[in-house]
Amino acid sequence: MTLSRRMTGFGVLFLATAVLLIAVSRSSLLQGAPGLLGKAIALDLLVTLPALYLAAIWRSRIPRFTVVPVFVAMLVLGHFIVPEAGRGVIEAARNYVLPAVELGAFAFIVFRIRGAMARVGRVGYPDYLDSAREASRELAPGRVADLLAGELAALHYAFSLGRNAPEPADGEQHFSYHLRSASVAIFVAIAFVALVETVAVHLLAHIWVGNWAWILTGISLYSLLFIIAHARATPRRPILAAADGLTVRYGLLGDARVPWSAIAGVEQGEQVLEKDKQRWDLGFGAQLNVRLLLSEELEGQGPYGIRRRYRELRFFADEPGQVAEAIARYREVAGLESSPS
Predict the structure, then answer these.
(1) Chain centroid offset of residue 173 CA
(2) At what angle do helices 128-136 and 98-121 cross, to 10 degrees?
(3) pTM for the structure as a whole
(4) What is the pLDDT of residue 14?
């Protein structure tokens, strides 16, 4: 039996079991022994269905820790369909099992990520976000890995003690973009205002919506953490010129990898341009002082792995002349025209 058929079979069995449990919970069968049947439904929801899900994904690329949200979903479903006589199992699972499951899943993810990042680091990925992306792909596919890497990078840059960018490897060159730009100062100011507003909004929201105010406060605090992480990542994630191309970074808000062969033109100086869907501005538009014209469409990554396609790239560099010189030098080494037209 192929893997896809096996997953389909378990998926059908999973859905059929879920539908059967819902049907039984609404039928007259519960009148004879509501306590016994109620507990049986709760156990099937919390044990049998997650076990079927695990069996379906066991040999697939889907991470096994995704059984945790399935368990949580079954717990929520149990609150709606399990009769009152069987609610004790649901309440016990919510109060005792769920915290243990969440803590165990978090510890598992952290352990696997640390191990994977240690292996990745030994083969030459000094940038933390790049390392987190490579390591996360050992645990999860595609976009899920990018989301996980984004979360890890935000926590790392927000709370880690280091401030300096890694030293460039042999054959590489780094370019800063924070020393002569106001972007870091702007984000620090935004973070300060956000902190003040978070307190004020929480106090007002608590009056209007009660405990729901904590949800708004949590969103505000997470936004604040990301702003701080981006500001701290900016000096530690420089623009990188290497043998395979130019990697333009902008804190945690975007990475653009441009092969030398794709660069058709380089322009320096701040420019006021009309909006163009094919142009990607990595930074504040009024300050961008390097413009790359490309011979092909490329794809970059925004925060949390959001994809962005572009035919033109603008960014800020503290020394735009050095960036242009490096582009010409690396292109010449690669056997290309040193000065793209």
Answers:
(1) 27
(2) 120
(3) 0.70
(4) 66
